[in-house]
Amino acid sequence: MRTMSTPSAFGTLKAVPALDRTDLLAPPVTAAIREWDHSDIPAGEFQVAEIDPELADTAAFCAAYDVALDASANCVIIAGKRGGETRYAACMVLATTRADVNGVVRRRLDARKASFAPMDDAVARTGMEYGGITAFGLPADWPVLVDRRVAESAGVVVGSGLRRSKLLVPGRALAGLPGAEVLDDLGLPT
């Protein structure tokens, strides 16, 4: 197993190839990486780093591991409702921003009302742990809305599906996910 020295934006994380440590990935994330077939971004570029699960939340994680907030992206699950129907989407935004739920996301879902999916619902529908949910391995019919700043990042830290680890991936990998849409101004300044 090869250990990668991480760039300074990734602080003190010790990352290894993700498929070498599938014990650090939720099952749907492992499946998504194994099925990855983009020749321009080999699955070997996906790295995973073990962390303290008590430090999985973004602010605590970035402080503890000296990771720049603009090198960390959050995946938020949004539920949009219209006429008794609920539609879900995942939004990938930099930790320095917040998803424009009531503007960009609501319009994209063609919903009257959009809000963060309840924790229990998000966990059950993704098969991932709260605080570790990521865009890799989500239900195939969900759009993955990716803020352009995330997609254009050389590398970004995202969830692994578990609270005890983080993935380090090229931003363009998120843009290459099935159902991914790169959007300008999805992330609003905090």
From TrEMBL:
Q: Where is the signal peptide?
A: none
Which superkingdom does the taxonomy of this entry point to?
Bacteria
Species of origin reads: Actinopolymorpha singaporensis
**GO molecular function terms attached to this record:** aminoacyl-tRNA deacylase activity
Q: Which residues are listed as membrane-spanning?
A: none
- Cite the YbaK/aminoacyl-tRNA synthetase-associated domain residue spans from the record: 53-174
A Pfam family recorded for this sequence: tRNA_edit
The name this protein carries in UniProt is Cys-tRNA(Pro) deacylase, prolyl-tRNA editing enzyme YbaK/EbsC
